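Would you mind writing out the residues of a protein together with its fold in token form for me to study?
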Amino acid sequence: MESVCFTGACPDMTREELTEMAEEKFEVKKSVTKDLDILVCDDPNSGSTKLEKAKQNGTLVISYEEFQEILDEEEYEGYYSIIQSRKILKYIRDNYGMECVRIKPKKAESPLAMTASKFGGLPYWTAGEEFPKDVDGNILTLLAQINFAEVPHLPDYPEKGLLQIFILADLSAGRDMDDDGTTQNYWRVVWRENVDESLALSAEALHEMGVQSAEEIMKKEHERRDSQMKRGEELTLEHDFPLEKEYALSFEKGISHPNQMLTEYNDMATAAAKKFGYPVYEDPKNSFSEDLDMNDYFCEDSKDGTLHQIGGYPFFVQRDGRSEDEEEVLLLQIDSEYNTDINISLGDQGIANFFITPENLKKRDFSKIRYYSDCY
């Protein structure tokens, strides 16, 4: 039987009434001890000494409202209870976190430096280089440029150098659905160990080569379709791109936590269930209580709900998109984001991931990248 302790005032009943109800399912304790399972309080974020002690001990801290839901919960065969689910999820978050770098885009108020980190915009390019094209000879467009000199360092990741990802401006966002994501037919990765702003081609020089930014492409596409609409013609689509603006990027370190789409999540959940002496179900990641809002556990890694990042655990919409044949780490993840200043749309609220093997990352061999994206 799991143990519970109460602190602060319960809004709906006396402590005696609450204790009497709780004793049907829990051992009620009067103080916070190392073996306490749950601390119930009026404000889990109050920062009181008792709460901080409980959190240091690994005790689950919840509100009185949440505890009432636990008391009212009906039990279903083959599913963990709310409290069992919460303890398993907490154990996974506490024990399997991985360091990452969060990326925060912001609309660029003026054109960014050619060597700057950016989503969209014009890339750093030098005279005499052949610009990336797809297998049909179409000029590709910059999706992302990461200047690692601006990025907080992660082990094995570069401390300097420029990573550039170009894609075809069409509905597929450069993805070739007929291959495994490694054949760069409609997208390209360019890695530069060293960059020199003084060598960068100007916007005018890039335009003379036929290079366009995402914003330029989409502005022309909107104008073309507006003209079709005015003439009463059927609307057609010639170009599409996940971005409509140039976005400046800032970076900060964070902790990435596992999510249910990962193939290893069942093993993590099984390990937690065994630790607490809970039943081990065949598919534990789909056996959490249906009364629990899973978004509370899989959306809190990001303050604004978006998951642009370098390193850490990748997030997927439909299934785990990593290779089944070799280990891969996350080089870059770009999420869909919609707000007043930002419009990043990868299909229907999709997400794009670029993977590399740990060995190639250490060698700085960026010629062998795998591109995977999915959406709702």
